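Repro:
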Amino acid sequence: MSGYTPDEKLRLDQLTKLRRQWLKDQELSPREPVIQHKPGQIERFWTRFLEPKTLWRIYTYKAYNRGVIILTRFLIPAWITHYWVKYHVSERPYGIVGLKPRLFPGDVIMETGEVVPDLPESHAHH
């Protein structure tokens, strides 16, 4: 037995007819769409703002470019230089201290001029 049965042929014809009708229904008539789209305030702002060669667009572009130049050519290099000088070159007391000097009883604290007192002697532990 080769080919389709009469029921299969009928079903195939019906599906083909339905597909053709569906494709025909997808085409828009000249009347569609019936409702006209009215742009809102935000959409109107962006359509006017993004028009080529408008003053807002020109000045925004210039301000952005100047900001990028100031940031990349001045602020970031200045910050890196400041960090490097503060923590790696400068030998001021508020920089990073590698090792604090040891204090022993009887030593004089340079900032205040105080003398470090002797340790109290207690024989309670031993």
